[in-house]
Amino acid sequence: MSSGSKHVSELRLNFVASCVTGSSAVALFNPLDCLRVRWQTLPEATVASNSLLGFGRKVVAAEGLWRGLWAPGLFANTLGIGCSTGLRLGLYPAIRDTLAAAGAADDDGKAAGKTASSMVGAGLLAGALGYWISTPLHLVKTRQQAELGMLRATVGEGGGAGGAAVLARGPRAGLPPVFARRSPGGVGASLARVVRDEGALALWRGSLALAARGALISAGQFVGYDLTKTYAKQHGLLGGGEGPLLHTVAGVISAVSAATLAAPADMLMTRFSTAAALRSGGAYRGYLHCAASLTREEGAAVWLRGWWPMFVRMAPTFVIAMPLYEQLRRLLGLAYMD
Fold first, then answer.
1. Is 64 within 8 Å of 172 (Cβ atoms)?
2. pLDDT at residue 204 in the model
3. What span, in angstroms and rounded, lies between the C-alpha atoms of 235 and 303?
4. C-alpha–C-alpha distance, residues 19 and 17, integer Å
5. Dihedral sign, CA of 126, 128, 134, 137?
6. Which of 37, 42, 119, 157 has its C-alpha lying 20 to 30 A from 72's C-alpha?
């Protein structure tokens, strides 16, 4: 096999390992993602009177774990993350090595090898591409999860809460839900509804914020994970070589750096993509209008609101996903990511 064919084969196998990793992780941890979205779209007064954990308990008590946090947006999220992770994690090593080869040479004139800057650059490029392409699926997932948090039961014939669910707030208050899982239709119907009501370009509403968020998540994740692995192996830490302990610790560090970089963009993406359907004032005119309105109405602290739920979601996801990804690479005949 020629070197070019071998490179393409390795890229293809790495893409497969990445897709399986992303889909598996999101199917397992969708409740944390749903909790994050529902928390971010709550009215400010409700947020002030609740903790994230307390709010999660109320949701589970009232709706059950499956209906309230696990099922909403599950299929769309699995497809979207499978696609975005397949691209960003699948392309990351190749982009990183390309950037490193084009970078500064060492004292002997040879390529200096991968550096923190090549890791960050590769994460930004791969993350932006992966999340931009999967924007429609992320849009549907976010609306399904956000709308679910606005439902209330109407009064039934016997005077109790036995009627059909309707939206409790927003411009469609009192009307049946459109995207929530309890309403008819799935991912395909939700995509068609967006196109019919808002136009095809609306499928990419929030795409720039999502791409920026994805780029920042990937940059934080990969520099945290890759740099931790590189440093630990060079200094004989965490066992001195590849293994579950190194992969797990690197996964935790990658979650901290990813959440820190991505929290503001994540908040912007969530609010911007749901405003047309959920905000009383309708859609924002653009990202700057959205950012300015959020800062003016809810204060600068609003940009940190997503950090804790994002980290809570990322930490267990990365701790499981990255070791799984490494083992899948070995199962497919590839070496550990280096």
1. no
2. 92
3. 37
4. 6
5. positive
6. 157
Ordered domains of the chain (ranges, CATH)? 3-103+112-152+163-331 (1.50.40.10)
Which residue stretches of the chain are H helix?
3-40, 44-48, 52-63, 65, 74-101, 116-133, 135-148, 187-198, 207-234, 244-278, 287-298, 307-331
* CA–CA separation, 143 and 74 (whole Å): 12
Contact 313/32 with Cβ under 8 angstroms? yes
What is the 8-class DSSP label of residue 180?
A: S
Could you give the CA distance from residue 184 to residue 94 in angstroms, rounded to a whole number? 42
Spatial CB neighbours of 259, under 8 Å, sequence gap ≥ 6: 220, 307, 310, 311, 314
Task: Provide the 8-state DSSP code for 178.
Answer: S
Amino acid found at 301: A
The predicted model scores a pTM of 0.76
Give me 64's structure tokens.
């059950």
CA distances from residue 96 to 2, 13, 328, 334 in whole angstroms, order as listed: 22, 17, 20, 17
What is the DSSP annotation of 107-134? Answer: TTSSB----HHHHHHHHHHHHHHHHHHT
Question: Can you give the C-alpha Rg of the chain in angstroms?
Answer: 21
Predicted pLDDT at 161:
40
Residues of the chain falling short of pLDDT 50: 106-111, 153-162, 182-184
* Cβ within 8 Å of residue 33, ≥6 positions away: 26, 73, 77, 145, 313
Fill in the DSSP letter of residue 317.
Answer: H
Q: Which amino acid type is present at position 175?
A: L
